[in-house]
Amino acid sequence: MSEPLLSVKNLSVDFHTARGTVHAVKNVSWSISRGETLAILGESGSGKSVSANAVMNLLDIPPAEIVSGEIIYEGKDLLKVDYETHRALNGKKIAMIFQDPLGHLNPVYTVGWQIVEMMTAHGRPADMARARALELIKRVGIPEPEKAMGKYPHQFSGGQRQRLMIAMALMLKPDILIADEPTTALDVTIQAEVLALLKELQAETGMALVLITHDLGVVAEIADRVVVMNKGEIVEAGLTREVYHNPKHAYTRKLIDAAPGKGEIKLLDPAAPLLLDAKKLNKTYGSFAALKDVSLTLARGQSLAVVGESGSGKSTLARTLLRLEEADSGEALWKGRDLITMGRSELLGVRRQIQMVFQDPTQSLNPRMSVYQLIAEGWDIHKLMPDKSKRRAKVIELLEQVGLSAEHVDRYPHQFSGGQRQRIAIARALALEPELIICDEAVSALDVSIQAQVIALLDDLRQRLGISFLFIAHDLGVVRDFADTVIVMKSGEIVERGPTAQIFEAPQHPYTQRLLAANLDPDPDVQAERRASLTHG
Amino acid sequence: MADLSIAKPAPETARGPNLFSMLWRDKLAFVAAVVLLLIVLFALFGPSLLGDLATKQNLRGRNFPPFSFERGWEFFLGGDSLGRPMLARMIVAAHSTILIAAGTVLSAMVVGAGLGLVAGYMGKTTSQVIMRLADVIMSFPSLLIAVVVLYVLGPSIPNMILVLAITRIPIYLRTTRAEVLEVRERMFVQAATVMGASHARIILRHILPVVAPTLVTIATLDFAFVMLAESSLSFLGIGVQPPDITWGLMVAQGRPYLNTAWWLAFWPGLMIVITALSLNLLSNWMRVALDPAQRWRLETRKTKNV
């Protein structure tokens, strides 16, 4: 093997925080050659971004401190070169794209200006930069490139913005492109397109691609080699296929096992009584129709999944059923009573029976309330458990039910990890002994291994307590594991519905088929097969 | 990055001693609290103990210079233009000053925040009515309202509080409304709605605690402003009436003598600065102490890296 293009050797970085020193990465080494794709795989807090940030000189020092190690590029140690030398390399030789393209594009300049600036900042003439920008915008597949140059970032969709970021990164023909979770914020079909684009561009330019991700599917799709990180250390490294098929480290095995979409498909109990019967719900925002004649039924103990990409109206559906938004027309019968036209006092009673778990527990838990206050609040509202001395014991019982313990009662949300916070949110929902829990992307903000735990918890609750679930998700793997019935939504309409097995094994509607095809399998071989069938078929 | 779940279990058995130890931890805030306590004690007991001393004229002690015990301890900070002891007058003046400033700031804050919460939370029409009302108040020169109202109602401390409070209400109202508009869109407010929480509960339990730190900060800044605004009213003769006295009035009265007897305006000015500063330090501490996510700063021993 030839000399690697970039190599990180024994890098250790500490973060000095007020709570003490955190060893963010410990003795991390990896290298990458021209034309190669290396994936750095890890969950949040594993330190997967730290080494890439060190390469780009993006670490804030202090609080960060590089304790040891070197980063060799073209024979120079990037940790020792001065600021100006580094700046000349950044963007020109080593470029980076980020998870959130909207956050990294300046909203007050046109995208054309920003892309051109990338080149003029490195001392190239403006007309040459403009020509190159136009060529690249065309290349990354933005329609009407001339016009697109004069538009502002908010005028593009998320996928297009990520394409523009890629165009910007490629302006100076970098040797290395570092992509930090480039597709995490995107819908599956768009994720597949962006990954395909990255691959094509890599084949054309021969650049090296470092991909930082938490998603095994993305790794399987694109990476030649993978480095698995856990708690700041590299636990395993090797060729993608080998790591997937013969994981040596226990953590890698755990990660692969946690990947959703492998369990038994559940069947619906046909005898269960009907709980919710929504008919022809409509909701428009101005001239935009968010819901078009949406009907659904939900039986006791059933778990109904609503899948769709962003903007498909799946969240609006949940919000309408909960009366957070008023529907324009239609009815939703909850045990025979219409939720949509129900009066305030009656609605209060129903609010106890229908609970919701939100996507981001960091935001859905009031940061100024302790766990006890959060969970007990529902009892105050509905005047339950009047004997306050018993409440504490009940809160502890609920916490234990969701896998937390008594010592957590008096803590505040910020003292927990993301997964634990979501458990608190679930405990809060359970406190009112609901009959239906609506989960709006309840696991999509969580790491895979935690995602698997939360799904298992929800499933356990469904079986033990007979709670029904309306499960809104974009991740098909999770849906396959959890739901017994699936509804597929697109632009406010239900395009397909049926038992989970039918949707996954014999999808009828072309949109469902597309969604399933775009969903990445964690197995590299399966992905390779799919790619082959797509190009030939 | 850090595993926050390992945060030490905070023993929160009793709230009182805990607050005190948190105050002790922040030495500056502790000093500020002691100073404020002292000023409040002056305000409460000053007039009854030193009232006579502060009004007794002594023309031989006119503009008596400070830092000498020649005429007794009460003249240590000098004498004013009528020969009254500055020290005694300042202690007595604390009463009216604090009464007016605290009364004004508190009533402006309560009314302003209350209206702001309603304006931010309720529908468009209510909000529009309240906001235009605030605009009317703001478009009037505040001193003009004060002059007119006080001329009609007659100068007295309650009337001054009323007038000053009205002119300060829009500041609290606008800030509160702006914050409420943002906070009410947060997820945890929606989560409370879904649980069935009433409007009052959402406003008081979920929105107000988030808005409160901002309001307290504005209130402490406003405290100094009100002390000076009151002095300009008194200067015009429609504020506090002699023999009542406030720090602001003392500053105003001492201004003509700045060249010859600087202490006439300096000492009361210093008191205003000290009070405002102490309030700021204390409100800063309070902001941290009341925020669960920040509170640890006052609970653990600080490490060298902070």
Automatic annotation (TrEMBL), chain A:
It comes from the Bacteria. Transmembrane segments: none annotated. GO terms for biological process: peptide transport; transmembrane transport. Pfam families: ABC_tran, oligo_HPY. GO terms for molecular function: ATP binding; ATP hydrolysis activity. Residues 8-256, 276-516 form the ABC transporter domain. InterPro entries: AAA+_ATPase (IPR003593), ABC_transp_ATP-bind (IPR050319), ABC_transporter-like_ATP-bd (IPR003439), ABC_transporter-like_CS (IPR017871), Oligopep_ABC_C (IPR013563), P-loop_NTPase (IPR027417). It is found in: Cell inner membrane. It is a peripheral membrane protein. Keywords: ATP-binding, Nucleotide-binding, Transport. GO terms for cellular component: plasma membrane. Belongs to the ABC transporter superfamily. This is ABC transporter ATP-binding protein.
From TrEMBL, chain B:
Pfam families: BPD_transp_1, OppC_N. It is a multi-pass membrane protein. It comes from the Bacteria. PROSITE patterns: ABC_TM1. Gene3D superfamilies: MetI-like. The chain crosses the membrane at residues 28-50, 98-123, 143-167, 207-229, 261-282. One of its GO terms (biological process) is protein transport. Keywords: Cell membrane, Membrane, Peptide transport, Protein transport, Transmembrane, Transmembrane helix, Transport. InterPro entries: BP-dependent_transpt_permease, MetI-like, MetI-like_sf, OppC_N. CDD domains: TM_PBP2. It is found in: Cell membrane. Signal peptide: none annotated. Residues 94-283 form the ABC transmembrane type-1 domain. GO terms for cellular component: plasma membrane. Belongs to the binding-protein-dependent transport system permease family. This is ABC transporter permease.
